[in-house]
Design goal:
CATH superfamily: ABC transporter involved in vitamin B12 uptake, BtuC
CATH topology: ABC transporter involved in vitamin B12 uptake, BtuC
Distance between the termini: 47 Å
CATH architecture: Orthogonal Bundle
Number of domains: 1
């Protein structure tokens, strides 16, 4: 939804303030989490979890559950399947990811059709509806993001060891399987929290793009996590500002702002190199 289409019915200060606060809450967790997604080359995994969120919404509608809880259930189910299958089955891991990604998305769309819930806005869940964030949504976003961020901080060191060398980490006594499952749970919570901000189809972009931009400047993992969160926050503010000025959809505008930040992160080192050579 674009900012210009609702400014007449809702006081701008109210909805814009809630939108910024919601976006910042999501960016603070997707930045550090996205760093691990980039390091571990799990972009397709993040996309699969995001697509499975639609099935979670359908589960919530059909069973009368909180939609956020349904998203977490579906994402955890997909994560458990992936953890169980891995690369040990007859089908390659990326093929399994592709099947689950598109399969859960299609199942979710079909199931939502059966639910026939009145007033359900599918487009808002697919592309986000940050401008319609309520106080209750803010509580859910910050609760989910807070738990996810706390869990990520708790497993930071062992997860970093696994990312560098899983076999060596296991030899040193790191519970690799347990840490990976906690990481998948954190991913599910982050997807559920970000769903309202940028939508199911774009949430993976908020995980990947700020982290990829930060990687071009960071010198260590902690620095990259902090820079990723900062770039995410700036993308939220710039995206909402662009949506207000140009009357464009807010969720996609945030992702476009993050994309511009990534392009800038590629250009700045090159410009510095040209200046140094001169």
């Amino acid at each position: 939804m674009a900012l210009g289409t609702i400014t007449e019915s809702i006081p701008m200060d109210d909805f814009l303030f809630r939108a910024v606060i919601a976006g910042i809450g999501v960016a603070l967790v997707t930045g550090p989490l996205g760093s691990f997604v980039v390091w571990r080359r799990m972009a397709f995994f993040g996309d699969t979890l995001a697509h499975s969120a639609l099935l979670g919404i359908a589960i919530g509608l059909l069973l009368g559950l909180n939609l956020g809880a349904g998203v977490v259930i579906a994402c955890l189910g997909v994560a458990l399947i992936l953890a169980g299958v891995g690369d040990r089955g007859p089908i390659a891991g990326d093929t399994v990811l592709g099947i689950l990604s598109h399969g859960t998305l299609a199942l979710g769309l079909v199931a939502i059709g059966f639910a026939q819930s009145q007033g359900f806005d599918l487009i808002a869940y697919l592309f986000g509806d940050i401008l319609a964030v309520t106080k209750a949504d803010l509580v859910w976003i910050y609760a989910g993001a807070g738990v996810a961020l706390a869990a990520l901080i708790a497993i930071w060191r062992p997860l970093l060891s696994i990312t560098v060398h899983a076999d060596l980490a296991a030899a040193e006594g790191v519970p690799v399987r347990r840490i990976n499952m906690v990481f998948m749970l954190v991913m599910a919570l982050a997807v559920a929290a970000a769903m309202k901000v940028v939508g199911i189809l774009l949430v993976a972009a908020l995980l990947i793009i700020p982290a990829a931009a930060a990687r071009n400047f960071a010198r260590n993992p902690e620095q990259m996590a902090i820079l990723s969160a900062l770039i995410g926050v700036l993308s939220v503010i710039a995206g909402l500002g662009g949506s207000l000025g140009l009357d464009t959809p807010a969720g996609p505008s945030i992702v476009v702002a993050a994309l511009l930040a990534f392009m800038l992160s590629l250009l700045l080192p090159a410009l510095r190199g040209i200046s140094a050579s001169r």
